[in-house]
Amino acid sequence: MSRIHDALKRAEQERATSMGTHFEPAFDQPQLQNDGPLESMPSLQPSGATAIPAMASGFNYESLLARCPQAEWTPDPLTMLFFQEDDSRIGAEEFRTLRSRLYQIREKMQLKRLMVTSALPKEGKSFVAANLAQVMVRQHGRRALVIDADLRNPGMHRHLGAAQSPGLTDYLLGECDEFAALQRGPMENLFFMPAGKIAGSAPELLSNGRLKLLLQRVEPLFDWIIIDTSPVIPVSDATLIASSCDGILLVVRSNVTPSDLARRARAEFPDKLLLGVVLNGTPSGKLAQSKYYYGAAVNSQV
Ligand SMILES: Nc1ncnc2c1ncn2[C@@H]1O[C@H](COP(=O)(O)OP(=O)(O)OP(=O)(O)O)[C@@H](O)[C@H]1O
Ligand SMILES: [Mg+2]
Q1: Angle between helices 3-13 and 259-267 (to 10 degrees)
Q2: What is the atom index within ligand 1 of the atom nearest the CA of 21?
């Protein structure tokens, strides 16, 4: 029985007592390469997209990223934990712990493209993905990209208070290049690719080859690429995206996610991709009490 099964079981047992979010790793992961922050640049050139020059000595990433539009964001102050100076927001420490765990994993395997998913809607995928990206860039010099790949029900732009398009769909349709689909917000080194306009069939768009190309092209520019997805049980989109990722975090909402559905979601992915479970939860009936909610909700016991 894998550790992820143990983690799901433990999550189930904790329903009665804990409403917290904590991370349960699911290794042993295979030993792969330990990547540095910036690797050599692929020289792929999609049709309709601006070419990124091949890596050369003295290559200026800043000038490339300067092509991303500077955007006005109004992040949700209740759920986005790192936009204010206050480092002691309830819940922030638990995201730092999750960050440490991910760096530990990265010592053992290639890990940059991180997918965040869950069995069902409203379990906190976007909440976890957005805050994780923020806590990553709180470390000096780290650059993160968060991509909203939930093309059916995009929500990340609402958490960040950002525009929904142009974004991933527009890129997948070949209607813009990657820089036009990216936004640079008010937090240094945090970049966002929203879902874009709602158009076409999500599975067809996600499997047309351009998502892989996009990730290859932007990968050298970032230390972390965090991909928010649709829930696993109702639709197949997350499984399509998983094949382009290095690792997956499965969000389980305490007191909400039926354990059999969490297990079914987990079974959709190969063991080697499953990094762990993020238990996210709230005391029932306490949703309006945000302080208590966070205090309990992001309670890391890594
Ligand atoms: N730990 C938490 N603390 C505070 N609010 C949370 C927490 N987890 C989730 N929420 C809130 O619960 C709601 C659903 O969360 P979120 O949008 O992250 O879920 P989701 O899994 O991405 O949903 P969807 O499947 O619709 O995309 C949001 O209003 C979010 O702000
Ligand atoms: Mg979401």
Answers
A1: 160
A2: 1
153-183 core/surface letters (b: 16 or more CB in 10 A; e: else): bbbbbebbbbbbbbbbbbbbbeebbbbbbbb
Q: Is 299 in the pocket of ligand 1 (CB under 6 A)?
A: no
Per-residue model confidence as pLDDT tens for the chain (302 residues)? 455 556 566 655 554 333 345 566 554 333 222 233 322 333 223 333 344 443 434 457 778 888 888 999 999 999 999 998 887 887 888 899 999 999 999 999 999 999 999 999 999 999 999 999 999 999 999 999 999 999 999 999 999 999 999 999 999 999 999 999 999 999 999 999 999 999 889 999 999 999 999 999 999 999 999 999 999 999 999 999 999 999 999 999 888 889 999 999 999 999 999 999 998 864 533 332 222 233 233 333 22
How close is the Cα of 155 to the center of ligand 1, in Å?
A: 9
Q: Is residue 153 within 6 Å of ligand 1 at its C-beta?
A: yes
Task: Give yes or no for residue 300 CB within 6 A of ligand 1.
Answer: no
Containing 118, the helix (H) or strand (E) segment is strand 113-118
| Bridge partner list, 25 | 276
Q: What is the CA(103)–ligand 1 centre distance, in A?
A: 24
Ligand nearest to the CA of 94: 1
Q: Does domain 3-36+69-297 have CATH number 3.20.20.70?
A: no
